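Subject: complex prediction, re-run

Hi both,

The earlier run crashed halfway through, so I resubmitted it with identical inputs.
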Amino acid sequence: MLPELDKDVVRNRIAKRIALDFEDGSVVNLGIGIPTLVSDYIPEDIHITFQTENGVVGAGPVPQVEDFRFIGAGGRCLSLLSNASLVASDFSFGLIRGGHLDATVLGALQVDSQGNLANWWIPGKLVPGMGGAMDLVTGARRVIIATTLLTKKGEPKILEKCSLPLTGVRVVDTVVTEYALFRVIDGELTLCEVAPGITVDDIRQNTFSGIKVLDEVGKMTESEEKQSL
Amino acid sequence: MPSKMIKPVMSAEEAANHVVNGSSVMVGGFNYGGVPYSLVDALVEAGTSDLELIANDTLYEGVGHGKLVQTGQVRKVIASHVGLNKSTGRLFNEGKLDLELVPQGTFVERIRAGGFGLGGILTPTGVGTVHEEGKQVIETMGKKYILELPLKADVALIRAYRADRFGNLTYFGTNRNFNPLMATAADIVIAEVDSICETGGLNPNEIVTPGILVDYLVLKGDSYYATRT
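This time it finished cleanly. Structure:
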């Protein structure tokens, strides 16, 4: 049985673990939702240039005084760091598609054993659209997925095969959930870390039975202190 | 017939009359940012209908061109993301709205193709997903690309920062987004701006959109959103 966790604990645990997964100097795009929180937890000795799809390279935290002439992809106000530059959408997506991003962090509806991602459409129900996600998963060197292990209804989001329309084929590198971390190794999604108190069987029961498991599954750690940008 | 050297400055209401029933209309903006709010509000007020709206997103209900969808004035939406406006998804699911979702990077490149005389663009974005259905897939240098066709409009409503009377435009902050490219891809281009100076009053080094692309100028109005962006 998976322990029930508070919504904020879930969101921040996922964001904290992802924040430990970058090399110094990386250029990173953060999606809307949990991914946005990642920038709050980057370790002090790691410097990241955050790119927003609407045209900022070098985005900083939400400023004290709001100016809606400077917003991020989620519509929140942002500040510009000293290295920042502003570009139009064509240039921004040129950076994204052109391989100039080290990583993108995105949410998911489903991820599967081959690293396929679905996050833009539930036919007949929800039509949010893909926004910039299809370009991001195509162009970013690493695609990191930030998601809860289960849907709100308690159904697995990590499946042997996605049933929803795909955003990208074999594009996912890493999946971080509140209970476990997975990486795509040799083309196959592999359970690599479990959160304290969670067993490999817990994850098997809440993903799919045939999920590949690393020989030595690690503990999913998170930075303890909230860091500022 | 407007002068080609001195662009008419007019009210948003007058400018909105250039959009007629059945027009295709590009509207600049990403989320709250860089939306020509006064022009869009005037279009809502005019009640012009049967429109094809080409915009990155459909904002929120009650905001900017989000209202245009809500009032039923729009026949078809071409956008990358519509998830923040409940009306868009509802009208689509009820069969009352035609919706074409386009990956954001593809959206902007299709506008570039339309404005810059290209027959289309080849992009890897969406290969292997339902987005490629009905489109030509071209393999070159061992990689698959989707052929995406140009996008043009009868009228573009854009938001810039400063203008001179020739129609030269500068942009500010993240308000730039899709506006400069939309100015290349419509028969009539109307720019809503913060200020208008005599020709020669802008530094050519800072001009992004040459005035030859712009037909009419409108000063931004005093609505809540127009004054904040």
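Residues 224-229 of chain A have pLDDT under 50 and may be disordered.

- K.
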